[in-house]
Amino acid sequence: MMEKAESPDAVTYKIVFRGLCNGGGPIQEAVDFTVEMLEKGILPDFPSFGFLAEGLCSLAMGDTLIELVNMVMEKAKFSEMETSMIRGFLKINKFKDALANLSVILDRQKSRRY
């Protein structure tokens, strides 16, 4: 796509992201792609992000997960209270609780947009 001077859109990013997270590919590639998506203002879908998060946890890459969650919260414009709650869970390594709350907040935001 890039060779034909066509920029990928949000749908394209989400499809590639889903493939990277569900396909068992190199986790660093999925992390780098997630960062690229977020820098372009595209939020990953949560089910695929959940797979990536599980992979990061199983590889003891909690710091990377925390960085990605912080980027998602920033791009999704979470309230200060929402951000504080999730960061609190992350700080005490309660990754599943943090991700569960992240999912709920993202779903609530998505329903407000539509």
TrEMBL record:
PPR repeats lie at residues 9-44. Keywords: Repeat. The keyword Cell membrane does not apply. InterPro entries: PPR_rpt (IPR002885), TPR-like_helical_dom_sf (IPR011990). Belongs to the PPR family. P subfamily. NCBIfam families: PPR. This is Pentatricopeptide repeat-containing protein. It comes from Lotus japonicus.
